[in-house]
Write a structure and sequence with these properties.
The protein is α+β, with helices and mostly antiparallel strands and about 190 residues long. Helices cover about 15% and strands about 25% of the residues.
Length: about 190
Amino acid sequence: MVYAFLFIVFLFGNVTPAVNARMGLTFKKSYHFTQFGVDGFVCGKPPNECNPYTGDTDCSRKLPVLCKRIDFSPRPAYPIFTNNPNLNGGWLMGSVATTIPVQGLQFRNVHEVDMFCKESFGDGWVTAAFHDGRLIPGMNNTRYSGSEWTAYGLTSSYQQGGWSFVAYGNVRDDTRFWIHISDQRSPCWAN
């Protein structure tokens, strides 16, 4: 038994058992482009891994909530790092900010998390979510940015992406953040 535990620690590092059985979804800031004033969030390879299906972080852990305010800003011409439109680096169409660290399990539902964002930053602020990135097929660094982004939105619907998004802001990069997902059971709170 002891050997099995030591083998697991050897393979996976210092594994700390979850205090709470519930796991929640988190994102981590991946990059900041100063010239555009935007942050990118990616769920992918380490250190930016996340698990939208079962959660990746114990809900009893204290982390900031990533909040957003959608103002329909045109997309700046930031670089897009993927050719896969489903892993899109999509535009959030607004800004992000982070709250003080809180336990994910203190919220019963997404409405309570949205109210926490509103209390922290004011009207219009709600919880950021896994599928917040908006994209236009064929968009790249400059195509479908600025007024071209806005013009497209007047006649067509933006596609919804997942796994990553870009937003105005410059949040901290030393921790993960609680976020929401509406089509899985991985948030610490109910939909």
